[in-house]
Amino acid sequence: MKGYIEDQEFGKIHVELRRGMTSVRFTYHDDGNLLMRAPLGVTVSDLRRMIDLNREQLRKLPHPQDITFYCGQVIECFGCRVIIEAQTRMPGYILNHWEGDTLHLLVHENADLHDENIKHTISSVISRAMEVQARDVLLPYARRVAGELGLQPAGFEVGRGMRKLGHCTAKKVIQLSRNLMFLPEPLVRYIICHELAHLTHMNHSPEFHALCNQYTGSHEKELERQLRHFHFPIAR
Questions:
Q1: For the chain, where are the alpha helices, taking DSSP H only?
Q2: What's the DSSP call for residue 110?
Q3: pTM assigned to the model
Q4: pLDDT of 29-54, one tens digit each?
Q5: What is the distance between the terminal CA atoms of the chain, rounded to a whole angstrom?
Q6: Domains along the chain?
Q7: Per residue in 117-137, pLDDT tens?
């Protein structure tokens, strides 16, 4: 169930009520407004109370547009890096190529890297380029994690989600977004373990969370908290 409520401080807040959820989660919607996910059945009064209880944390929640790009910048990723460099040959174009585990992103020297449209274009180029490394680095890593846990999913695939970073299909195929490449290793492993737990429980029941917590060495809640507050280096 989806809708929205108005808040005096944050304006329009998108609301998604989901069956099986036991807590409230806040992030940002694609339109730049806050997105609140809460258990199915809560009332509008409950939602407003939850916002008030989390207001201080919401003020500190990194905005998806609070990103910076500059020539000479190095973005460390999972098993690779991105270096942003200037080019003079092709105004209006963003070029890129891989050299080993380094993605060289070439923007024209006169490009305004503070412009939001350019930020989103750069982000899109980097995200698409990460699909190569996701196949070469992320999927083998996921297979190793599954092997360590004694699990055998039907397969692994690279996805493209910006918000949905992982998914376990009804056929037991684990889909991992190429955008996991921007996360540190503990959070990459956490998302993999989360999806692997869905092989047993295709829901977010207490049993699911207990299994996920087992797979993560009793650190599920802390890793989930870190993921909620992680500031992606690209626009989402």
A1: 44-53, 55-60, 116-133, 139-148, 185-197, 206-215, 220-228
A2: T
A3: 0.75
A4: 766 788 999 999 999 999 999 999 99
A5: 23
A6: 2-60 (no CATH), 74-130 (no CATH), 137-228 (3.30.2010.10)
A7: 899 899 999 999 999 999 999
